[in-house]
Description:
133 residues, alpha+beta, 18% helix
Amino acid sequence: MVPKLERMDEKVLKMICDYLKSEMYAEGTMVFHVGDPIDSMVFITEGTILTYKTTNADSHAHENAKMGPSASPSIGTLEKGDFYGEQLLHWASQKNVNLTEAPSSADNVKCHTKVEGFVLIYGQGLENCNFQM
């Protein structure tokens, strides 16, 4: 369960459900890159998504193998029942939000398999929900 949603009024939760959109992602699809604005939240119903950080050293690790071992990126797994992008709810609950000030993804988010789920997108109704708790 998403902690922020647990504390919301049932009326607001019903509004949020009205704005959820069904989405399918092909294997290998990048949902977010590090630094991308988080303008949507993904709820996974099928498939696997990997989350990982890439540093300059990570992206050039293969090229620089002769220079010694490099730290491998930390990889997380999201599966059925998991979600990514909760920062969107916190940000959208503030007054006078501006899409140019949306939170940034701290991770690369990539589909490891075909992924099905629901997406909540700011700018497609979510901004009409009253998140005040």
